[in-house]
């Protein structure tokens, strides 16, 4: 009786393990943004009318940005992944990933193994050969910032900053990431050091003014933006600095100062720009609340 019971329990364990493995192979969770799946094998969701899934590897091309290297396709049949043979007449297919790229599912170890894939492709090292260099790290941070993944951008940017803080464009990307994340106190000392090193870069004044505005240090923000506008040769950037100050004074209900910055916004912004529209809305709602 005991022997029979032991065999039954063992059989149940084996059946349970087989079931888990099959589920592990055929279940996909399309809940990951492409920039969260860098250096991973991924599968894209299929259309309802399709029977196959496209899969491949996501990486960052340091110059071009987030890229999907298409491997081939597979379909699910009786709990297994059936690979579609590659067309030998077609070379490597790479796709630049745009902000509207669909969510992906990262392939787990079992799925990677079932698809006969290595942990990472051999060609990846070509794109990683300078990954410890400041320029590479700065560009990597830029690509993350560009899609709004500023928390991920901080990782390479801070690493680069410890090596060469005044590398061209690095301080801007780092302060931009902190400002985007609402960590204004972290951005300010970085921008101040950047200005000491390069006092003629108006982008630094734009970011510093933004930090001050969001910390309600309005006078410091105004003085900073005045300097930035004076040295800028870009009307759009001037209008952005002006609208930030106009909004700050709208919140304070300081009509004299608001009118001053509203006038500057209209001076530098395109007539049909959203900044001019914001000014109109502020004026129309001045007496509300």
UniProtKB/TrEMBL annotation:
Q: What InterPro entries does this protein map onto? A: TPR-like_helical_dom_sf (IPR011990), TPR_rpt (IPR019734)
Looking up Pfam families in the UniProt record yields: TPR_8
Instruction: Cite the repeat ranges for TPR.
Output: 168-201, 202-235
Q: Where is the signal peptide?
A: 1-21
Going by the UniProt record, its keywords in alphabetical order are:
Signal, TPR repeat
The protein's name is: Tetratricopeptide repeat-containing protein
The species this protein was found in = Winogradskyella echinorum
């Amino acid at each position: 009786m005991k022997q029979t019971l032991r065999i039954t329990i063992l059989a149940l364990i084996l059946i349970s393990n087989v079931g888990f493995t099959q589920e592990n192979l055929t279940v996909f969770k399309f809940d990951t943004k492409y920039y969260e799946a860098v250096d991973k094998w991924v599968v894209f969701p299929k259309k309802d009318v399709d029977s196959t899934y496209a899969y491949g590897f996501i990486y960052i091309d340091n110059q071009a940005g987030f890229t999907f290297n298409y491997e081939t396709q597979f379909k699910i049949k009786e709990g297994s992944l059936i690979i579609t043979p590659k067309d030998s007449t077609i070379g490597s297919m790479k796709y630049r990933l745009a902000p509207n790229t669909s969510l992906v599912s990262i392939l787990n170890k079992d799925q990677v193994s079932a698809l006969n894939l290595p942990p990472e492709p051999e060609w990846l090292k070509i794109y990683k050969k300078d990954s410890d260099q400041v320029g590479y790290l700065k560009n990597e941070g830029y690509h993350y910032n560009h899609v709004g993944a500023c928390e991920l951008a901080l990782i390479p940017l801070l690493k680069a900053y410890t090596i060469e803080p005044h590398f061209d464009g690095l301080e801007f990307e780092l302060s931009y990431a902190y400002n985007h994340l609402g960590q204004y106190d972290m951005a300010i000392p970085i921008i101040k050091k950047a200005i000491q090193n390069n006092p003629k870069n108006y982008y630094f004044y734009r970011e510093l003014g933004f930090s001050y505005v969001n910390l309600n240090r309005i006078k410091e923000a105004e003085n900073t933006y005045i300097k930035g506008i004076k040295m800028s040769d870009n009307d759009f950037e001037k209008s952005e600095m002006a609208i930030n100050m106009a909004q700050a004074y709208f919140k304070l209900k300081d009509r004299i100062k608001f009118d001053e910055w509203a006038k500057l916004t209209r001076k530098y912004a395109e007539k049909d720009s959203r900044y001019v529209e914001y000014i109109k809305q502020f004026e129309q709602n001045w007496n509300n609340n």
